[in-house]
Amino acid sequence: MQPDLLPDLLASWPDNLSGLSAFEVGLSGGLDSMVLLSLLVRARQYRPQLQISAVHVHHGLSDHAEAWVQHCQSVCTNWDVPLRVARVSVNRAAPQGVEAHARLLRYQAYAQASAQVMVLAQHQDDQAETVLLQLLRGGGVKALAGMPACRSLAGLVLWRPLLAYSRQQLEQYAALFQLRWVEDDSNIDTRYRRNMLRHCVMPLLAEHLPAYRQHIVRTAWHMSQASALIDEVVAADLAQGRRGHGFDVASLLALSEVRQGFVLLAWLHEQGVGAVAPDRVQEFLRQLRCAAEQSQPSLVVREVVVLRYRGNLHVFRLREGLQSQFMQPALMEQVHEQRVPSWGGCLRWERRGGISPDVLERGFYLSPRRGGELLLQPAGRRQVKKLLQEAGIPPLLRKQWPLLSDADGKLLALPGVAVSSECYDPDGYWPEWLPEQ
Ligand SMILES: Nc1ncnc2c1ncn2[C@@H]1O[C@H](COP(=O)(O)OP(=O)(O)OP(=O)(O)O)[C@@H](O)[C@H]1O
Fold it and tell me: Where on this chain does ATP bind (predicted)?
């Protein structure tokens, strides 16, 4: 291929960018992004509607940071490109590592662009490194698909037009157009895994397998296709099984085992339960498949628990230190809901036989179980613990199930389960307890 990459770039301009005219280049000042900016500035001659701007993210990590800003500024002034300098403060002690935190802040700065398209300069060698890094990290299908050429980012399109070109091609282009760039000294530090691959492993691969980049990129393409197919199947399975915030266990178990795993992970992700080890998900599914209807498999992930509750899977927050709370119901309507934020749930009253209105209008307490409580039922006094068990409330929810009692501490009801015969009225209110996610 010719060292001038512009004809090829113009010919392969993605269809989904047609009609978009405001492009902002992520300009580090290094070789790759200088080549990218040069290409887009030259593309303006052929597509006069293009508005090109640039953003340089100043991380303040290097002693040369100010010099990089000046370099970017002088090139942009020469090429008549407005430059935005975003100063961020990277936490050198960030738990995810300084590089990852810098990257996060960079993407936040990109997301603030007023342009329609954010353009980054990752190329074929970067793609090969990314895929290999993911492989060495044990990444799944999506991770091995590498970086997409186009994706959305906070309402913008993120475009990586140089993925098809090797670093060598960019170097040839830079030489042809006599570009000047800065070198980031941290790129040679082989303590970073990516740099170790770049400087120690890739040259060896290139020596023995000169076409290794194209091969890795081809594998990434296969993976991206497989990943898109999985996404389609998972989206259909999710739509089939979603029930409000819950997920229908029967729909889940009707799927093949492999689809169960994918859809459960996707649903957990939707519910904000990220990063669950796949083997724990598999074990939970195995228990769900084997467990009898009444048994209660649970998956505890940090402060939440995933449980089967009334035929659906639900994610519940585990709560400690629940306190008694006095409440006054507004008994005006047939159905009435009272949110109880400190208990993470909602009391729902329905006038279909339950606590007598006379008792309720004096107010009641919502209190945690202490153990050993009894509730009067038509057949005599019953243990609260047993009633909860018989109602199929999973053990971890039982611990945080509220009791309703009057001001003297007399037990009135176990919401959703039973009302005391002492205060039962056929015209009374039935309490339901709806734990929130
Ligand atoms: N300081 C910066 N300011 C603006 N853009 C930058 C800056 N650093 C990097 N970029 C942009 O991001 C591209 C990729 O750089 P680099 O590989 O260092 O970043 P990354 O965001 O970590 O990439 P990846 O998505 O591969 O993890 C650069 O070619 C450039 O377009």
Answer: 28-33
Compute the distance from residue 434 Cα to the ligand 1 centre, in Å.
47
Q: Is 56 in the pocket of ligand 1 (CB under 6 A)?
A: yes
Query: How far is the centre of ligand 1, averaged over its atoms, from the C-alpha of 57 (Å)?
Result: 9
Q: Is the pTM of this model over 0.80?
A: no
> For residue range 140-186, what is the model confidence (pLDDT) as tens digits?
999 999 999 999 999 999 999 999 999 999 999 999 999 999 988 77
Does residue 306's CB lie within 6 angstroms of at least one atom of ligand 1?
Answer: no
Backbone conformation region of residue 228, classed left if phi is above 0, alpha if psi is from -120 to 50, else beta: alpha
Question: Would the annotation count 31 as a binding residue?
Answer: yes
Q: Which residues of the chain form CATH 3.40.50.620?
A: 5-223
The CA 266 to ligand 1 mean position distance, Å, reads 29
32 is in an annotated binding site: yes
Return the residue whose CA atom lies nearest to atom 19 of ligand 1. Answer: 103
- Residue among 24, 32, 33 to mutate when testing ligand 1 (max atoms within 8 A of CB): 33
Q: ipTM of the predicted structure?
A: 0.94
Q: Which CATH number among 2.40.50.140, 3.40.30.10, 3.40.50.620, 3.30.70.100 corresponds to the domain 5-223?
A: 3.40.50.620
Tokens read off for 184: 């980031």
Residues of the chain with CATH 1.20.59.20: 244-317
- CATH class of this structure's domain 244-317: mainly alpha
61 band by pLDDT with thresholds 50, 70 and 90: confident
Q: Is residue 408 within 8 Å of 326, Cβ to Cβ? A: no
Q: Which atom of ligand 1 is nearest to the CA of 25?
A: 31
